[in-house]
Amino acid sequence: MSGIEIRELEAFLVLARELHFGRAGERLYVSQSRVSQLLRSLESRIGASLVERTSRRVGLTPLGERFLAELRPAYDALRDSVDNARAAARGTGGVLRIGFQGTVDDYLAGALTLFQERCQGSTIELVEIPLSDPFGPLQRQELDAAVVLLPVEEEDIVLGPVFSRQPQTLAVSARHPFAARESVTAEELAEWPLIGVNGSAPAYWRRVQAPSRTPGGRRVPPGPAVNTLQEGLSLTAADRGTMLLCRSTADYHAGRRSVAFVPVTGLPDSELGLVWHRDHTPPLVTAFASAVSETLL
């Protein structure tokens, strides 16, 4: 173990999942060359190749497969030990790390209150996650659970309670012709560039948040792609494009004078869901999922 860095192990674990250096870099928020550097360093310490690289594919060597099988549970146990030590240092019964996109709406706030009433020895850490990476923090086990915009099609992500089903809202500049409207139709999205989500989010998820076609088949011109909600709202205020938002996020930012929020008719409602990793379900996640479900009753 002498000299091995946690970052090297994390790079190997993510690369073993993605089998693609570019996607692994996106998940780790580093460059593709940095992933290669970390892997080479780890292989040098071990003394053998863990990954096979060709011009067409990336795969694990037999040693890499064996190392992955032994490393994954050990890494999970190490993370749990750190979390337990943090909880003990705080004198609590555990730490629940919850990610969210955009804002904490009334449903989530109510569930947090109910959870804390039931699990008084626990601590909740709320972390805003990038719009461009809805599932990465869970897959890297940086979080225990997250509230994300649907859909969810990741095989390693479990979808729990679904809530906040509401009509979508279009954010536009206060100077935009739509700003004074009571509503716009989905077909009118074709008249102005629509701000999208950066490429590190899954393609199917990005298409739902920023469709390229209206329900009637008209092309929607693509606007800039962003990583965060704040980037999108700043570009909207600068009249660089329009942006689709869920209703709760629009309501939270309704006080911004530079942006107007207009309901959209003719699009499927947006929905939020509580999700967690299939291989990492601490008891506090189950307790919180129950609180969310009961809050919806």
Structural class determined from secondary elements: alpha/beta
Instruction: Please write the string of helix (H) and strand (E) elements.
Output: HHHEEHEHEHEEEEEHEHEHEEH
Structure annotation, total helices:
10
CATH class of the largest domain equals Alpha Beta
Query: What ranges have pLDDT less than 50 throughout 5 or more consecutive residues?
Result: none
Number of strands: 13
* CATH H-level superfamily title of the largest domain: Periplasmic binding protein-like II
Distance between the termini: 51 Å
Q: Into which percentage range does the β-strand content fall?
A: 15-25%
CATH topology type of the largest domain: D-Maltodextrin-Binding Protein, domain 2
Mean of all residue-level pLDDT scores: 89
CATH architecture of the largest domain: 3-Layer(aba) Sandwich
Shape: globular
The spatial strand order of the largest sheet comes to 4-3-5-13-6
Number of domains: 3
**How much is the radius of gyration in Å?**
21 Å
Helix content: 25-40%
- Note the main sheet: 5 strands, mixed
Domain HTH lysR-type: 4-61
InterPro entries: LysR_HTH_N, LysR_subst-bd, WH-like_DNA-bd_sf, WH_DNA-bd_sf
Pfam families: HTH_1, LysR_substrate
Protein name: LysR family transcriptional regulator
Would you kindly provide a written description of the structure presented here, covering whatever features stand out?
This protein has helices at 6-18, 21-28, 32-46, 62-90, 106-118, 136-139, 203-209, 229-237, 247-252, 283-295; strands spanning 51-53, 58-60, 94-100, 122-128, 145-149, 157-166, 169-173, 184-185, 194-197, 222-226, 243-245, 259-265, 270-277. The relative contact order is 0.15. It has 3 domains: 6-84, Orthogonal Bundle (Arc Repressor Mutant, subunit A), CATH 1.10.10.10; 93-163 and 272-295, D-Maltodextrin-Binding Protein, domain 2 (3-Layer(aba) Sandwich); 168-267, Periplasmic binding protein-like II (D-Maltodextrin-Binding Protein, domain 2). With 297 residues, it is of the alpha/beta class. The strands form 4 sheets. The chain has a 5-stranded mixed β-sheet with strand order 4-3-5-13-6, with helices on both faces. Strands 8-12-7-11 form a 4-stranded mixed β-sheet. The mean pLDDT is 89. The protein contains 10 helices and 13 strands. The chain is globular and about 65 Å long. This is LysR family transcriptional regulator. Belongs to the LysR transcriptional regulatory family.
